[in-house]
């Protein structure tokens, strides 16, 4: 009986890890985040348009923090004032402005090519949809924006890649927004929690195995 309880405990911990491995949007702000609803299309359970922020048509990027060590992503741009869920399924309106893969966790600067959507013009209301897949299914988040030729308060220093690689949207850094590629890596709260959890999981598995063997 104790062995069964030990195994059940490990399974429960593994199920928690699948939640910790989700991703967050760190710049600019998304509509909202709920890790339990993130698999819900088209916007991770947030169906209503949120506060819009100005978003540049040139040198645009989205910054995310990934719990997975490898993932693929697709970023769509839907130009509309009040997009409904059905609008995100319209391939002629919801146009891909970025797609790719990353093979490291934590911070990633995802560059966008806004010219791919012919409806992207200064002054237009739009929604950016991020579709992320770390191998366990698609996860969704949305950012509501107003497109602009220039955005005075746009923060290029937020374009950070945790592996230290550069991005076409700015000088990517490792865990720093100072513009230096030699900065010391820092952990976001979600990453730190994930690492702490992983250590605890390994300890729990070792303890249970020792108990079962003995």
TrEMBL record:
Signal peptide residue numbers: 1-21
Subcellular location: Cell membrane; Endomembrane system
Chain positions covered by the region annotation Disordered: 170-191
Principal subcellular localisation of the protein: membrane
CDD domains: LPMO_auxiliary-like (cd21176)
Origin superkingdom: Eukaryota
Transmembrane region(s): 195-213
InterPro entries, A to Z: BIM1-like, BIM1-like_dom
Membrane topology: Lipid-anchor
Gene Ontology CC: endomembrane system; plasma membrane
Span of domain Copper acquisition factor BIM1-like: 21-163
Keywords assigned: Cell membrane, Glycoprotein, Lipoprotein, Membrane, Signal, Transmembrane, Transmembrane helix
UniProt protein name: Copper acquisition factor BIM1-like domain-containing protein
Native source organism of the sequence: Parasitella parasitica
Organism lineage: Eukaryota, Fungi, Fungi incertae sedis, Mucoromycota, Mucoromycotina
Annotated gene: PARPA_00080.1 scaffold 262
């Amino acid at each position: 009986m104790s062995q069964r309880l030990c195994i059940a405990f490990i399974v429960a911990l593994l199920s928690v890890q699948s939640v910790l491995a989700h991703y967050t949007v760190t710049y600019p702000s998304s509509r909202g985040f709920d890790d339990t609803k993130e698999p819900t299309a088209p916007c991770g359970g947030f169906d209503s348009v949120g506060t819009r922020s100005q978003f540049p048509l040139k040198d645009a990027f989205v910054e995310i923090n990934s719990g997975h060590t490898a993932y693929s992503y697709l970023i769509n741009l839907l130009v509309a004032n009040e997009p409904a869920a059905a609008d995100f399924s319209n391939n002629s309106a919801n146009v891909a402005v970025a797609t790719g893969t990353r093979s490291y966790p934590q911070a990633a600067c995802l560059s966008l090519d806004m010219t791919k959507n012919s409806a992207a013009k200064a002054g237009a209301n739009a929604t950016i949809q991020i579709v992320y897949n770390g191998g366990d299914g698609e996860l969704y988040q949305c950012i509501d924006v107003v497109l602009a030729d220039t955005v005075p308060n746009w923060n290029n220093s937020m374009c950070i890649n945790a592996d230290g690689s550069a991005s076409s949207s700015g000088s990517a850094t490792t865990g720093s927004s100072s513009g230096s590629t030699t900065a010391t890596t820092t952990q976001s709260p979600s990453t730190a929690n994930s690492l702490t959890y992983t250590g605890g999981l390994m300890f729990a598995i070792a303890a249970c195995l020792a108990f079962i063997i003995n």
